[in-house]
């Protein structure tokens, strides 16, 4: 698959990837290392929590989203280089057995004023479960390189 330079991106363009299934062991393993709260680690504690059952950490959902983005056909030249998020929401928890997929849409493409070899692409990425319920929404800016001038 070809790499996309800044000039290849256009507002409204879409990209997708997935699904990737998340199991109970995945949720507990990630939480044990990065977000060791009872509602991510223990079924009984999770059942008595705000989540009313075992739920993946939002950071786990973000990491899965990143994995799906890397496997998608967005493929910016230079890699997926984040310059920050304008929005990051988790409207619904990820549960054991969920199969996640992503849908990304280009919202803005702008060349850099100070670095002529690159620009920014603003992308909204929605992560959904197997029921097409939204589990994460992010709006982020990616650094994307311009096509090198021909000699």
UniProtKB/TrEMBL annotation:
Alphabetical keyword list: Plasmid
Domain MaoC-like: 11-126
SUPFAM superfamilies according to UniProt: Thioesterase/thiol ester dehydrase-isomerase
Record Pfam families: MaoC_dehydratas
Name assigned to this protein: Dehydratase
Organism (species): Sphingomonas panacis
């Amino acid at each position: 698959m070809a790499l996309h330079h800044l000039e290849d991106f256009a507002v409204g363009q879409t990209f997708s990837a997935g699904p990737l299934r998340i199991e109970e062991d995945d949720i507990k393993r990630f939480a044990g290392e990065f977000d060791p709260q009872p509602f991510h680690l223990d079924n009984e504690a999770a059942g008595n929590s705000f989540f009313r059952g075992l739920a993946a950490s939002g950071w786990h959902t973000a990491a899965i989203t990143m994995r799906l983005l890397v496997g998608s056909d967005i493929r910016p030249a230079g890699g997926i280089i984040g310059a920050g998020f304008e929005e990051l929401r988790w409207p619904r928890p990820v549960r054991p057995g969920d199969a996640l997929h992503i849908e990304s849409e280009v919202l803005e493409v702008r060349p850099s004023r100070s670095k002529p070899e690159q620009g920014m692409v603003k992308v909204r990425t929605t992560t959904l479960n197997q029921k097409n319920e939204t589990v994460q929404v992010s709006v982020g800016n990616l650094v994307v390189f311009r096509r090198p001038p021909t000699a």
